[in-house]
Amino acid sequence: MILSGKTIKEKIGNEIIIKPFNENAVNPNSYNLSLHNELLVYDEEILDMKKPNATRTIIIPNEGIVLEPGKLYLARTREYTETHKYVPMLEGRSSVGRLGLFVHVCAGFGDIGFKGYWTLEIHCVQPIRVYAGVEICQIYYHAIEGEYEPYISGKYQNNSGIQPSYLYRDFE
Questions:
Q1: Contact predicate 43/54, CB 8 Å
Q2: Residue 63, number of CB atoms within 10 A of its CB
Q3: Which of 7, 125, 133, 168 is the most buried (most CB within 10 A)?
Q4: Which region among 23-27, 91-95, 155-159 has the lowest average model confidence (pLDDT)?
Q5: What CA dihedral angle connects 156, 160, 164 and 170, to 10 degrees?
Q6: Cα(8)–Cα(30) distance, rounded to whole angstroms?
Q7: Could you tell me if 68 and 164 are in contact, meaning their C-beta atoms sit under 8 angstroms apart?
Q8: To 5 degrees, how large is the angle CA 5–CA 140–CA 93?
Q9: What is the DSSP string of 148-168?
Q10: For residue 93, what pLDDT is reported?
Q11: How far is it, in rounded angstroms, from Cα 46 to Cα 33?
């Protein structure tokens, strides 16, 4: 079962935390999240799963920035979220997708108990200008059936910014 927008509003402050919360971002069964002004890009041509890969930060100026195809841009939402009791899911907004912009490669599935900002794995079909603050994706919530353990991993929990891959920690 997916929560309705009205139910998301009812759960805000208790089982669902979104900061800052904007009532105008509530949809019939989701909530729009917006793009922060920072992007992270990998500096290395070949990425290695077994080691940290060098990155650099790009700030999106007021006039926007043009993203290029064939390049991965890591970004984050402006909104901090916490989810207690529900499974959070993230998808791009259809208007954004219709411009050929993808907001995640495979990390659209969250865990109950996640606390932090969502890291977006952005790539595009053709060059596109993006702007900080644009409502770029939407979060929605599934009810879970049965007993569960909340997410407590130290890998991505309680983040404060864009997070590159920490897969290399699995090899340690």
A1: yes
A2: 7
A3: 7
A4: 155-159
A5: -20
A6: 8
A7: no
A8: 95
A9: ------TTTTT--S-----GG
A10: 95
A11: 31
Q: pTM for this one? A: 0.93
> Catalytic pick from 121, 147, 149, 172?
121
Q: What is each CA distance from 144 to 1, 84, 94, 129, 165, in whole angstroms?
A: 8, 11, 26, 38, 27
Token readout for 66 is 């043009």
pLDDT mean over 36-62 = 97
Q: How far apart are CA 10 and CA 153, in angstroms?
A: 28
Closest CA to 33 of 41, 48, 22: 22
Distance CA 158, CA 37 (A): 20
**Does residue 121 carry a catalytic annotation?**
yes
How high is the mean pLDDT of the chain? 93
Looking from the CA of 91 toward its CB, the CA atoms found within 13 Å total 10
At 109-134, the pLDDT tens digits run 788 888 999 999 999 999 999 999 99
Q: What is the dihedral of CA 42, 108, 10, 31, to 10 degrees?
A: 70
Inform me whether the pLDDT recorded for 5 exceeds 90: yes
Distance CA 39, CA 162 (A): 8
Q: Which residues contact 149 (CB under 8 A, 6 or more apart)?
A: none
